[in-house]
Amino acid sequence: MSLTVRSFAKINLGLCIGPSRPDGFHELRTVYQTIALHDIIRVSVKRGKGIEIVSNDERVPRDASNTCWKITERAMAALKAQGRVVIEIEKKLPVQGGLGGASGNAVVALIGLEESLKKRLTGQERLRIAAEVGSDLPLFLVGGTILGVARGEEVYPLPDLPSMPCVIATPEIGVSTPKAFADWDKLTAAHPSDRIETFSRMISAWLSGQSSGVPVKQGRGRAETPLLDLVRTGIENDFERVVFPQYPELREVKSVLEQAGAIYASLSGSGSALYGLFRNRSTAEKAAAKLSKRGTPAAVTTTLTRQQYWGKFQVSSF
Q1: What is the CATH number of the domain that holds 96?
Q2: Which among 111, 249, 305, 315 has most CB atoms closer than 10 A?
Q3: One of 10, 70, 91, 254 is an active-site residue; which one?
Q4: Is 39 labeled as catalytic in the residue annotation?
């Protein structure tokens, strides 16, 4: 059996970097949000042994360094399954752009593998295997609006932000995540950041407001109110403090998004992708056109609630 699924991307609504941990990672706090931009993944299990990766993008690894390969290898062992697994990756998302493309690919490969084999891992097993492969993977087992803690792999579903138009800008710039973390360590060496505690208070305050049942003020649309409430807490992406000085053109892209009417604009992860969230699609389309005219690739999409994420997940099976 073969299964074709959409592999959606994510953005980060704020990202706080804490101190280095004993395991070499950094303590993080972030709010993940899934969006409708996606790759297409096809998974099939045939007679034989091994794993085969096929892709339309030559930058996608075809060996054991590929996240789909890693998660498939672990899943086959956990399921005590045999066969030759073929994973076809139709890339539409940028490679290493801060949108979680490779991580999402791996998670849908796992789900496609289970469906093809007609075998299931428990929810906890899925999360464990996903976290072993990478910090950004577990969020794609939840979808919607998600709190990420620890190194980002410990995830908790949050009250969903309503779906809204989103512009994704993908400048053709390569940002090294390890270097960005190293630069952050240099920046905060003399004065260690206490942003983790601050971010936690921000999210706690936002959640308290979400659950208080406070009526929406007149003149503020329902779709944008929860996001505006979150933005007003002061959330931001710490990576901007070290990435923007080295790549000022990324700061300029964020400024264009804000000037074009974005309710909130930010770097996603360590970049180089940036995004802006808008009140309506027409404004978003104008912003994307403005960026494209400047030579920055940009696409208009929407954020996905948890229900939308899983509802649009599967394309076909045969």
Answers
A1: 3.30.230.10
A2: 111
A3: 10
A4: no
Nearest to 155 by CA among 306, 70, 31: 31
Of 130, 115, 132, the closest CA to residue 42 belongs to 115
Residue 314 lies in a domain: no
Return the structure tokens found at 296.
């920055």
Domain count, the chain: 2
Tokens representing residue 260 in the block: 């074009």
Residues 227 and 100 in one domain: no
Final residue before a domain boundary, out of 160, 187, 205: 160
273 and 195 in a single domain? The answer is: yes
Tell me the CA distances in angstroms from 49 to 82, 87, 181, one per residue in order. Answer: 7, 13, 39
CA 221 centroid distance within chain:
26
Asked whether residue 315 is assigned to any structural domain, the reply reads no
In angstroms, rounded to a whole number, what is the distance separating the alpha carbons of residues 142 and 103? 13
* Element housing 155 (H / E): strand 154-157
Judge whether 63 counts as a catalytic residue: no
Please identify which of the residues 39, 70, 136, 254 carries the catalytic annotation.
136
Mean pLDDT of 262-281: 94
Block residue for tokens 């290493």: 96
Is the residue at 179 inside a domain? yes
Which of these, 187, 188, 199, 177, lies nearest to 273 by C-alpha position?
A: 177
CA distance 164 to 228: 12
* CA 186 to chain centroid: 26
Q: Please give the residue range of the domain that contains residue 59.
A: 2-160
List pLDDT tens digits, range 20-71: 888 888 889 999 999 999 999 999 999 999 999 999 998 899 999 999 999 9
